[in-house]
UniProtKB/TrEMBL annotation:
It comes from the Bacteria. GO terms for molecular function: 6-hydroxynicotinate 3-monooxygenase activity. InterPro entries: FAD-bd, FAD/NAD-bd_sf, FAD_aromatic-hydroxylase. This is 6-hydroxynicotinate 3-monooxygenase. Transmembrane segments: none annotated.
Amino acid sequence: MANILISGASIAGTSAAYWLRRHGFTVTVVERAPAVRAGGYKVDIRGAALRVIERMGLMDAVRARATDMRVATHYDAAGKKVATMDADLFGGRTGDDVEIMRGDLNELLYELTRDEVEYVFDDSITAVAEDGTVTFERSLPRAFDLVVGADGAHSNVRGLAFGPEERFVRHLGHYISICSVPDPLGLDREEAVHAAPGRTANVYSTRQDDGVARAAFIWSSPALVYDHRDVERQKELLAEAMSGMRWEVPRLLDAVREADDLYFDAVCQIRMDRWSKGRVVLLGDAAYCASPASGQGTSLAIVGAYVLAGELAAGRGPEGYERELRGFVAANQALADANLKGMVIPSRLALWFQLAMIRLLPRLPGRDRVVERVAGPIRQAANAITLKDYME
């Protein structure tokens, strides 16, 4: 098996491209967008994923682009500061964990691979035949030994090989939306948060943002019916969900109407009994999306790419990849439900209690135990795999 096509030039796809080339495979990446996607939101790299980044020789570059967030501040409806906490604790980060903008990480991975990997932009797969012939929207058909679907939770490749998305989605009862906005508060590496029962708004600016902030909204909701490519309808749904919230929310929603990089999706997971079928194997969110609530989607993509390439090179194929990764995926998907309880608070009483705990935390005699209760499960899940050295 020598000639591999990857669908998707995001974190999973570019990471897989790197490791597959290191193992001697010929790699082509096809991406629907006209270029590698820039911008995006901040993501965490933890545990085993850090060890993969180290083996790629990217650790210094990743740390140089870390967000350097300092503090998370909670505001009430009138704009008064009501609680603050360390940004790393707010994000569940401990030890060597790194937070970086998604676009920055993707750029580093692309630059690492662009000279040895064929990238085909502005195109998409339309069919994969049993003999490995792949047809495209724009390019001529080509033959590949394996197709890797690394094209996200709404994977086109998964739909072609496994059937409708609805068969594999576990909806977690929430939606999330993120986009770039003008910085409304002059933030300096700060998260600014306002929560109401069932809804949370967050705006943050990293050290690289220079007057630009990211507005993030998450709220409780049953499943919605909408077109994933109808951005204007998504903006309407977001405005409806946040209607009546005070603080900076009305101003943020005004800015959202002008945004050209809106991310809007259900907080959901992809659960599949198998990740490969015929000449297709799925990677990252396409196979095992853990949802943004897990905080581990990026780490799963990085580790999954490393393991998939290594198992293919070792001759154990997609089956070996699944055996190595299943436990790691299960541990990280399990984080989402617990994390959501802290991200979206269901009642005013529960919200009051949460803010009171944040204010008291620095003075609590059992502070370290409280911190461990938050960060411990994330750290354990992030390290729930023993990485093989496939380059020996």
